[in-house]
């Protein structure tokens, strides 16, 4: 089969490696130790097969056999070893051709989980993809490290699909622009897309701007990462934006202190952050000032912290205008602090949402003390609680609960909200057109109807009267209507009206019966009265869920 003898003197060159890597290779994925001698013999057998049998160039075959430990371990599990590992492996490979792309991709620095999705579907032999091998060798000869070429393939497979001679011309084109071969060899690992089309003009412009600011190629290489994907057009936009913001004189110092502003996420996060701040009305000069004072933090974390504060302000029901004022006035403070959860803060501060909004507006600097890992102390008593208790007691007495301490205690547990809020909600129902005496009776029968906002109560009354066509007096007989969600009410009434049109429901069924029945009873006693009822019910549910 054309096997050949490798002189003993070549063995050290074939197998010399760092102790930690060799140690790692001596263990299978199941933790079972593979003797070092066995591994060496297996490498030799694989090298012989790839070079002599498959006619792969010696340098490439050697690289594949030495740098594909996962593949080699997997192969050893399939081979029945009879005395001599090398002979047993050679015999196995003679009758069981391997998928050569697996050890090839692994030798380029890719893990099995990375290269498995990249394996060609209908090919097993490297010689069947001559363009892949040609472009791979061009990169090797140009000075790209073999174990980095896998990252290029993973990020931009188009590089390996160029016709013969095209890739070399692209590399030489960048050299003619003044870029050194060593710099290009590094850059294409970080940003292989510069080789997929024509010369990337934005990439060249970025280099020119950075060089003009005093940053050499060594500095640029130092701050690039294989883990990132670089969009040079976007990076160019950020550099241009910094100039337009009026901080062109300080831009060099800014980039020197915070290179992440350019290279983290290809500056996309910076542009997203700027857009977010502009939406809140932050002026360009303030954004420029913010970047010049930018803290030692990743851009993504800074933006995430600001968004976290924004969501917190929404959760405590702060007015939009007030949120905008705080974001525009304290962007550095908000971006530098990772806020605790809203529920934790409300508990630790021992405060309600309204008072917390007011406190933040009066003391915005206190926000910096509420970050993750800090101990948050309760806010000092404002005296509002005592006043609220008085208003609540008066409200309960006016409802007719009397001065019985047990009744009052029970009322305090049932009703949620401050005294003023309860009165406001009560007045909302009265102002809709009902007598105060009737509303008092309604509240005593269904006290939970006041445990929702004034706006929600108004909305539910409007739906009852103007959308569903029921008289306002229906609330006197069925005050619990205000406790049900509008989605449930609309769904039940839509189903009832359909059944009524099909003559499968009583025409004058009470509103309380339609809405208050449990889903199980409503289905069995109403929906199932018509053969198509269950399907109509599901369709209506889907429709109302979509609308919601």
TrEMBL record:
Keywords: Transcription, Transcription regulation, Transcription termination, Transit peptide. GO terms for biological process: DNA-templated transcription termination. It holds the Pfam family mTERF. Gene3D superfamilies: Transcription termination factor 3, mitochondrial (1.25.70.10). InterPro entries: MTERF, MTERF_sf. GO terms for molecular function: nucleic acid binding. It comes from the Eukaryota. Belongs to the mTERF family. PANTHER family: CGI-12 PROTEIN-RELATED, TRANSCRIPTION TERMINATION FACTOR FAMILY PROTEIN. This is Transcription termination factor MTEF18, mitochondrial-like.
């Amino acid at each position: 089969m054309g096997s050949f003898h490798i002189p003993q003197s070549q063995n050290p060159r074939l197998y010399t490696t760092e102790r930690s890597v060799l140690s790692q290779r001596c263990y299978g994925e199941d933790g079972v130790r593979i003797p070092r001698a066995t591994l060496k013999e297996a490498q030799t057998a694989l090298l012989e097969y790839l070079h002599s049998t498959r006619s792969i160039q010696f340098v490439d075959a050697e690289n594949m056999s030495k740098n594909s430990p996962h593949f080699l371990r997997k192969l050893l599990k399939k081979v029945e070893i009879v005395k001599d590992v090398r002979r047993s492996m050679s015999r196995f490979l003679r009758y069981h051709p391997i998928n050569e792309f697996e050890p090839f991709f692994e030798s380029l620095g890719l893990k099995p989980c990375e290269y498995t999705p990249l394996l060609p579907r209908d090919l097993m032999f490297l010689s069947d993809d001559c363009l892949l091998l040609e472009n791979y060798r061009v990169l090797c000869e140009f000075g790209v490290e073999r174990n980095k070429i896998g990252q290029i393939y993973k990020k931009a497979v188009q590089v390996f699909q160029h016709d013969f001679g095209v890739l070399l011309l692209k590399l030489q084109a960048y050299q003619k622009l003044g870029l050194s071969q060593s710099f290009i060899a590094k850059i294409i690992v970080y940003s292989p897309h510069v080789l997929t089309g024509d010369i990337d003009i934005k990439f060249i412009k970025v280099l020119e701007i950075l060089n003009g600011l005093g940053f050499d190629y060594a500095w640029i290489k130092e701050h690039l990462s294989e883990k990132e994907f670089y969009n040079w057009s976007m990076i160019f936009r950020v550099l241009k934006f910094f100039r337009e913001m009026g901080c062109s004189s300080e831009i060099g110092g800014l980039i020197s202190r915070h290179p992440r502003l350019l290279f983290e996420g290809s500056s996309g996060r910076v542009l997203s952050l700027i857009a977010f701040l502009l939406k809140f009305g932050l002026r360009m000069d303030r954004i420029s000032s913010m970047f010049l004072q930018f803290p030692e933090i990743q851009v993504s974390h800074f933006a995430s912290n600001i968004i976290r504060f924004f969501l917190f302000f929404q959760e405590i029901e702060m007015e939009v205008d007030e949120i905008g004022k705080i974001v525009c006035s304290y962007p550095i403070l908000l971006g530098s602090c990772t806020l605790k959860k809203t529920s934790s803060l409300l508990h630790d501060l021992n405060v309600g949402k309204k008072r917390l909004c007011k406190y933040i507006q009066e003391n915005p600097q206190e926000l910096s003390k509420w970050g993750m890992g800090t101990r948050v102390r309760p806010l000092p008593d404002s005296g509002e609680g005592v006043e609220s208790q008085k208003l609540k007691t008066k409200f309960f007495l006016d409802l007719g609960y009397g001065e019985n301490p047990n009744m009052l205690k029970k009322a305090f547990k049932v009703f949620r909200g401050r005294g003023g809020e309860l009165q406001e909600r009560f007045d909302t129902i009265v102002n809709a057109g009902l007598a105060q005496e009737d509303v008092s009776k309604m509240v005593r029968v269904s006290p939970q109807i006041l445990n929702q906002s004034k706006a929600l109560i108004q909305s539910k009354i409007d739906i009852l009267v103007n959308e569903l066509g029921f008289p306002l007096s229906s609330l006197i007989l069925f005050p619990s209507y205000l406790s049900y969600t509008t989605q449930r009410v609309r769904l039940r009434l839509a189903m009832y009206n359909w059944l009524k049109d099909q003559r499968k429901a009583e025409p004058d069924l009470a509103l309380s019966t339609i809405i208050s029945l449990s889903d199980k009873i409503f289905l069995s006693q109403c929906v199932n009265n018509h053969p198509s009822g269950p399907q109509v019910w599901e369709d209506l549910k889907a429709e109302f869920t979509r609308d919601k």
